[in-house]
User: What shape does this take?
Amino acid sequence: MGIHAIRLPDIGEGIAEAELTEWQVKPGDLVKEDDVLAVVMTDKAAVEVPSPVDGKVAALGGDIGELMAVGSVLIRLEVEGAGNEQEGTSASPEPAPAAAPKPEPAAAAAPAPEPAPSVAPGPAPAAVARAKGTKPLAAPSVRARAREEGIDLRQVPGSGPAGRISHADLDHWAASGGIQQGQVSRGANTGIEEVRVIGMRRKIAEKMQLSKRQIPHITIVEEVEMEALDSLRVALNDKHKGERAKLTILPFLMRAIVEAAREQPALNARYDDEAGVIHRHGGVHIGIATQTPNGLNVPVIRHAEAGSLWDNAAELTRLAEAAREGTIKREELQGGTITITSLGPLGAIATTPIINHPEVAIVGVNKMQIRPVWDGQQFQPRKMMNISCSFDHRVIDGWDAAVFVQKLKSLLETPAMLFVEG
Amino acid sequence: MPDLKCKLLIIGAGPGGYVCAIRAGQLGLDTIIVDESAPGGTCLNVGCIPSKALIHAAEEFHRIATAGQGPLGISAAAPEIDLARTVAWKDGIVSRLNSGVSGLMKKAGARFVAGRARFLDGKTVAVTQAGEEIQIRAEQIVIASGSAPVELPFLPFGGDILSSTDALALTKLPQSLAVVGGGYIGLELGTAFAKLGVKVTVVEAEGRILPTYDRALTAPVAKRLEALGVTVMTGAKAEAFAGGQLHTDQGAVEAEKVLVTVGRRPRTQGIGVEELALTLDGPFVRIDQHCQSSMRGIYAIGDVTGEPMLAHRAMAQGEMVAEHVAGHAVEWDKRAIPAVCFTDPEIVTCGALPGEVEGTKSSEFPLMANGRAMTCEREEGFIRVVWRESDHAVLGIQAVGAQVSEMSAAFTLAIEMGCCLEDIGATIHAHPTQSEGLQEACLRALGHALHI
Assistant: This one.
């Protein structure tokens, strides 16, 4: 038997380190070639690391949340034959996790009792049914704690044999808010759940902090009458029913941004604030803020100026799905020059969007609803929608920002202008 | 002595009262505890402790007396006992424990006031000692006045008619003793006297001895009484005592002394409990799950609150009441109160008896199949578990056998922790001990006992 050390592979251009976000194996597991060992995170893309050999997991090289340098030992496997690492001599610079039967410190430090630790809190243990009217089984200390915390044990599902209620069951009950049935007094919920900010959440946190710290935001909210655009959208959808993807508002907004940016290239840009250089891009690469199960992601529709309404709509659908499924490529999350953020029906009346650094502008879409509008003689019911746009006030003056927003408004209110060439 | 004020006043320094005082002191409550006798109550002064001392002495005597008849190859000269010295030894233990309890209360910061307490109203108690009276006003009062032996009108205590207290103070063995009442107190003492060579007759009104226990548990005790030469009359009523004979409806019984152990009554008279008009439960003070009586600020614990009249129940109640007064979230939520009968063999019961709860089954392991029991020459008895069929939760554990009293903790712990058959079955029980029988009884319930 020998030890085969697997090192963190080079997973992308210029990536020096990656964050370990998930172990798919634990010490003692048997793995086959191509089995996924771990998931690491670079920028906002998750990368799975497969095993190049068959073997048995001897030791894990790091904890979840740890930043690992490319080339450092990710995991050690016991393999048939000699392996690639001699026993007793470790090629790695970090404290050598000996291959000897000595308890492995890294493995012990890892949350060993829980295989495949995850970011989300563990699911509540399955409860065992308790016959109605029978007293719940619980140790005296559990009963005392329930009394202290005002928890009615009869309401608490017990995970132990015969439905016995453990301290862990009380934890889960408290963490779940202890929704009690019937007229039972509500107890104070003193449960505190620790959630480590790792992986994508950490990336998001860093990104948001960077944007908010570096960029003095100015936000402009304007209302847009959407009657014409929405009629056009419905007509186009009817015309191409079944043949083409259904259009939402977003492809039209992308077209409006492309048009507005043609007149104000300063807004379609990336500001390298360290170098003090603004890169005004010819192509309009529109990031679309997308909610995924792991958090916010911003896939980028490249060269929106070159695509038709339907091209952009299709690309938007493809990227959003990839982002949600976690199969999106790293390069598809990079290189945006302006961003759209839309919460659809949840879009509220106004928002204060945070610019996706190093871009200089972001367009927020609020919800569309019928509102009364004074036409000079009477109130008319009109489909109205607000847009909330933020700009980097270091490089965009209020005047220019306002002009840009007004341009968007007029383009959206008179959609024919979107398609008039010249 | 000037009048006193306190936060918590406890009437009675028995196991319930003194534990309540210690705990209250620990919790920083200004506490006074009143008793006319030495602290420790019935249990320590004239109950559990003295009777166990006598039982031990009788057992030692009996072993030596019967050693020659046994298979061990031991021969010994016929022993003699100086009961006065035995009683002096017993009194020494009692007085050591008295001062121990006093010291514990003092250390906790509770004040002991000697004297007889009587309620003046729901917040004030008069304490009389040697003709002097002081008044104590308290925010909360705990009635822990205990119980006293029940007297039969046709066999009033005094002279040759003994209460359990009197029997424990005898300095000379009677030739013969009639025990009226075949409950656990009468049988414990009757057995001890029989082992000391006294001709003992038990007169029990019910159809069998220890009528509150099931027949399987009491059978080994009845058998042992027979072997010890004790005559047991069941379904018999004592009528009168005259001329060294106890007359019953089944004929006269030779009796130099008569021990009457027909039960205990709560001590509510003489301390003014009646005047408070508390709600009663029969002769007992009715309490809720916090041991609160029907009057605000008045708690009751121990024998005065009814069956089971056991020191350890009173202690647990006392502890809980002190915490309740201190504002802790506590309530009486015990699943089981063990009861031990120090007969020969001993009986332990804890939790549900067979047939007491619907949907339960029971299974037992005989000590005859236990190696340790054999090596002690005591193979009679068994350990039994009562468990719920639907989920195997253990609801009751009982045992009868020599020295099984020490297993009561394991039994109660198992029930209090909510153990299932599988839990006890999977727990290693030390070999060779009688406690293996508990594991085996559980395995037997699961259909895979190993040693039977």
In short: Chain A has eight helices and 18 strands. Helices of chain A lie at 105-109, 140-148, 167-175, 199-214, 227-239, 249-263, 309-325, 398-413.
